[in-house]
Amino acid sequence: MNTNEPTFHRAFGTYGIYYNEGKLLVIHKQGGPYTYRYDLPGGSLEDFETLPDALNREFQEETGLTVRSKRLIGAFEFSVQSDWHRASHLHHIGVFFHVLEVDGEQSVPEIFFGQDSVGSSWRSRAEVNTSNASPLVLKAFDYLENPETDKLTRIQDWVVRQEATPCTGM
Fold first, then answer.
1. Best CA proximity match to 69, nearest among 42, 21, 102
2. What structural domains and CATH numbers belong to the chain?
3. In DSSP terms, which residues pair with 70 in a beta bridge?
4. Cα–Cα distance between 70 and 41 in angstroms, integer?
5. Cα(77)–Cα(62) distance, integer angstroms
6. How far apart are CA 63 and CA 157, in angstroms?
7. Between the chain's N and C termini, which has fewer beta carbons within 10 Å?
8. Whole-angstrom Cα distance, residue 72 to residue 15?
9. Is 136 helix (H, G, I), strand (E, B) or coil?
10. Euclidean distance between CA atoms 59 and 101, whole angstroms
11. For 49-100, what is each residue's pLDDT tens digit?
């Protein structure tokens, strides 16, 4: 096998955009291609789980908040050229929901196998950029500014971070 040939990995998940007083609720990512960056609360579906149920579960696990009301926005695609998951290319498909109402208090997530959030915080558009946020967070702000935003994002040469830096606050 030629090691220079492109390899492919597809990821699929559901994500919540919870925006309040000019800030977006983000998680502090500790795993995956967006390690040490801000990301949207959400993730992969478990067996027999619906998209809304997966969002509710992931949102609660990662932020401590319980989603009470949400509205489906649609699917967004991210084509990332990277070295994550032993693949040269990642096709990340995310179904986005606008989270309208929550209950509870933000809390530090319980640690268990597969948990990739180590906390959550509120960030404004001015506080996020390509070096400290996932493409999902950047797309969420694009969507909030213009709901007709393009639903496909292509990123060449994405770098999976190996350590936290002071600019991220993580």
1. 102
2. 8-158 (3.90.79.10)
3. 99
4. 13
5. 22
6. 30
7. N
8. 10
9. helix
10. 12
11. 999 999 999 999 999 999 999 999 999 999 888 777 788 888 899 999 999 9
In the block, residue with structure tokens 């949207």: 40
Query: Which residue in the block uniquely carries the two structure tokens 């925006």?
Result: 19
Residues 6+ apart with CB under 8 A from 124: 22, 23, 24
| Bridging pattern class, strands 66-81 and 152-155 | parallel
Strand locations in the chain, DSSP E?
Answer: 8-17, 19-20, 23-29, 38-39, 42-43, 66-81, 89-103, 117-123, 152-155
What is the phi-psi region of residue 114: left when phi exceeds 0, alpha when psi lies from -120 to 50, beta otherwise? left
Full-prediction pTM beyond 0.90?
A: no
- One-letter amino acid at 130 equals T
> What is the per-residue DSSP string for 72-101?
EEEEEEEEEE--GGG-SEEEEEEEEEEEEE
**Beta strands 23-29; 38-39: pairing state:** antiparallel
